[in-house]
Design goal:
three-stranded antiparallel beta sheet; 3 helices; about 10% strand
Length: about 130
Amino acid sequence: MFTGKHHGGGTAEDACWSAQLTPDEEFAVFDTSDALDILDDGGRFYGVLPDPSGDLRELGTWQQQIAVFTGTETGPWHGYPVWPVDDMAPPNRSTQAARPSKIVFDALEANGLITPRQRRRLYKGKHT
């Protein structure tokens, strides 16, 4: 589900998708994470959007390169960019508590979506 909250219709503290992404690209991030089961222990999907050269595209307005998708098996899923963030992000979005779990980074790498170098940088909260 594409929600207005994560497309500029929420508060200043809500994570928003970059206007540079098309709805199809947003959906592709979810679709790939769903197809490859890139999940954390809480059942949330995580995804990235590599460009043709293997670099990761920025997904959000705070330069996030990883998105999270929450929902249920029976309800709609919605997602938003989550990690890492730039220095313009509000404090509630820039703490280590916002970082996906290690199993997410390992799954992204194991499925060829990120390189070992990208995994290390992202885990530390650095952009690739």
